[in-house]
Specification:
Length: 254
């Protein structure tokens, strides 16, 4: 059964990792997909090609989510290509691991801007379009297990992920009257570019694996199903919710 037939899905930061898996998962479920990406064209174009090979339409729009204009531009280009926006997956994020006491100001500011301001303006731009269309929609933000727990080298990052989680709670209220649902997924530790260097530390990686009841760290594709579900009408009465997708890591105290 295809869950997103006829829908237009937008995904930020979708040339790699979780965003890419979500974009391809949406296409496998019958959606046309617009992806935002920040850096090199190659991975974005290969994501577009993968979606087209599935028989769906796709466009890639370059832009830095930290700039509020990027959100307006992304939504406008998606509407130009596909006529509407049904789903926004706000996924783009960075986590430059760094100790707290000597954290550079620019690293803090950039992390806040990309992860939190970026999500805010993307969600707002998508919601403005959905309200104009008048037939509701679904917004899924990629928060994190780190919205609920801390990280020694993530003091600039975990507040942004708690912020994204909180943003979905407030927008669920603000947008409910328009039939727009807002939820977040909270991935645990997923093997992607964002933590490649951090997990190159074998001891740390083994510790994270041992904390995970399902016995392995996640793959980007582990997020595709939960994101597609929340995006789809299967989740028609789900809003303001947060879904941990972490192999059980969060509940594993002892
Ligand atoms: P990733 O590095 O593969 O993906 C992040 C994507 O965001 C990249 O494609 C990157 O180019 C893009 N991006 C970064 N800055 C951007 C900007 N300014 N504008 C537009 N795009 C930008 O890593 P990932 O793990 O797939 O990360 C995706 C999301 O998942 C992030 O928000 C991250 O916080 C979240 N997350 C990841 C994990 C994990 O363990 N990997 C766990 C919890 C949450
Ligand atoms: C997540 C979580 C993971 C980490 C990534 C970067 O939110 O903390 O363990 O690897 O961020």
């Amino acid at each position: 059964m295809k869950l997103l037939e006829g829908k237009t899905v937008l995904v930020t930061g979708a040339s790699t990792g979780i965003g890419r898996a979500a974009a391809i998962g949406a296409a496998q479920h019958g959606a046309d997909v617009a992806i935002n990406y920040a850096h090199s064209d190659g991975p974005a174009q290969s994501c577009v090609a993968e979606i087209e090979a599935l028989g769906q339409r796709a466009i890639a729009v370059k832009g830095d989510v930290a700039d509020p204009q990027t959100a307006q531009d992304f939504v406008a280009k998606a509407v130009e290509a596909f006529g509407k926006v049904d789903v926004m997956v706000s996924n783009a994020g960075i986590c430059p691991f760094h100790a707290f006491l000597d954290m550079p100001v620019d690293v803090v500011e950039r992390t806040f801007k990309v992860n939190l301001h970026g999500a805010y303006f993307m969600v707002q731009a998508a919601a403005q379009q959905m309200v104009k269309q008048g037939h509701g929609g679904s917004i899924v933000a990629v928060s994190s297990i780190s919205a609920l727990v801390g990280g020694e080298y993530q003091t600039h990052y975990t507040p942004t992920k708690a912020g994204v989680h909180s943003l979905m709670q407030s927008t669920a209220i603000a947008l409910g009257k328009h039939g727009i649902r807002c939820n977040s997924v909270l991935p645990g530790t997923i093997l992607t570019e964002i933590n490649k260097d951090d997990l190159a530390d074998v001891e740390k990686r083994q510790y994270m694996e041992a904390r995970t009841p399902l016995g392995r760290l996640g793959q980007p594709e582990d997020l595709a199903g939960p994101i597609v579900f929340l995006a789809s009408d299967m989740a028609a009465y789900v809003t303001g919710a947060a879904l941990l997708v972490d192999g059980g890591m969060y509940v594993n105290l002892q």
